[in-house]
Amino acid sequence: MPDLKLFHFDIPTWGNYGDKALFPVVRDAFRVLGPGGADGGVDFTSAAALRREVDTALVERINARADAVVIGGGGLFLQDTNPNRLSGWQWKISAEALAAIEVPLIIYALGDNRFPGQPEFDELMRSHVGQVLDQSVFFGLRNTGSIETMSRFLGTEGISADDSGLGTARERFNPGLEGFNPGPGGEAAHVHPGPIRFQPCPTTIAGLLYEPLRGRRPDPREKVLAIQMLVHPRQQAAGFDAEVIHQATVDAARMLVAKEWTILSVPFHPDDAEVSRQLVAEVPEVKEITLYGSDVGFFAGFDLFASIPYVLGGRGHAQMIPFGVGSIPISLDLHAKLGYFAHDIGHPEFIVPVEPEGMAAESTTTETDGAGITGTGGNGHGEGTGDVARRAHALAQRIVDTIDQAYAHGNDLQDDLAATRQRLFDITAENHVDIRDVLRPSSGTGNSGAATGSPGAGTGRCGSEASSRADRESRTVQVPRASADIRAEEFHLAAVSEAEEISAAQSRELTKLRREHKQQLESANAQRKAHEAECENLCAVIKQKETQFERQSADLDARTAELDAQTAEKNRHADDAAGLRKQLDESDAQLRSINDRAAIAEAKVLIDKTVHGLAWRARRIKRRLRR
Description:
By secondary structure, the chain is α/β, with parallel strands linked by helices. It contains 17 helices and 12 strands. The longest helix is centred in the last third of the chain and has 144 residues, at about 485-625. The N and C termini lie far apart (about 205 Å). Mean pLDDT is about 85; it is low at about 165-195, about 365-385 and about 440-465.
């Protein structure tokens, strides 16, 4: 039978070691545990970055060349990484493009990655992930905590703790280890299929997938500890005190060095570098081994941790990768997924509580949810909340005590974790048998699940009920990956990651240019709007001035009319005055004429009287003279 052709949606990167290591191991898990013998092998025909938008052309290539599509693994159920409104989570594919994929989907080792304090996932994500579930022949999540939270979110039922093959933490308790919980040995239980299945992250079984790692186990008697630590801004937003936690990590390293421990700082991501620099600077005995960067292959971390018996981390893959090669993983309680994993391997005591000292005083709570951390009901440090050194020392002592206890039971713990790792491997192998039986039923000769059953077949019981487990497993040939395979995958990953980084750099540059162009447009629009507003203001001022001018003009016209009326009135008065003056002049002339005539007449009368008087007197004189 020809090889099963798979297409992989992954995250090619060299910036985050967890992602760098994860996706090659996913492919290798299919190559090792996939169909074998007469059933043929597994051939990954191609891959694409799941954070890039899936277009129609890619869907057409998938439909033409692949028998199934693998998505994962990783904590892809997160909304603020690669935010988009096509899916609402990290896989950037629209509902229409998703529906156009005609081959079955295999959801492989995904996880609920919601950080403490973040809001619930929204309805877009619920609808989209529900559609993915409907189109999947296998929907496997990497821890039982994610199964519980995503089952509630989607309104489905996941497998129970008993179905996982791991047993409960209570069943795994062993008083002989004074608080540590090594699990029972024996064969893994069969995982009963359900809508959501338990599929461990394949990095947790890497020691069984690669020939160079088989038989290797770090010596738990050696006092060697690797540290990866970072309090992410998302965690700081939820109230985690980064200054205290980072200083506590440094203090714990210093205390362990005093106890003759060898301490390595192993930053997984460029964001870890600052804490690593602080650790190396304050504790000179600490040696740094960087796992991120283009010059570090995906296998480097597995090879490194295979010789380090104890690891202290704050990232999910800083637990899972070391566990996968035999290290004892101890983590700070910074994210729900860390507790999920510790519970699944039967050792919740591997999680060091950071409360109360590691929390900001106002953030301590007694409540918890799927993305939170259980609180203590008080800040626990009263009026000393500003005493960073004291709080850091208290947390550091708790870290050291946990490591000391692990060291005291190192051999027993390592044996227990090896048995747990084998059970995770068996669960994974069983899942691969189920996937194979869905895609290639024993009674059929088709080449893909798309031809043998409708999407969503994986939500029922996978495989033939009639075939026995032994018969099914006999059809799987498990050949671990050799050094040559690892080198080939590292070459492929380096080439793809470099191309992806170049593409991402170009995308970032394009995004930067678009952002600058957008800013320029926004600035131009803002200037235009400012000019428009200024013009509107000027127009308003002009209109106001025009109105004022019109009002003043109207007032002026009214005053002019009034003045004209007054002038006309004045002119009339002037004319009247002129007429009166003329009349006066005429009257004066007439009066003078009259006066002249009167004066003459008076003078004549006077003369006449004078003459009469003189004549009278002359007569009297004459009469006197006659006497």
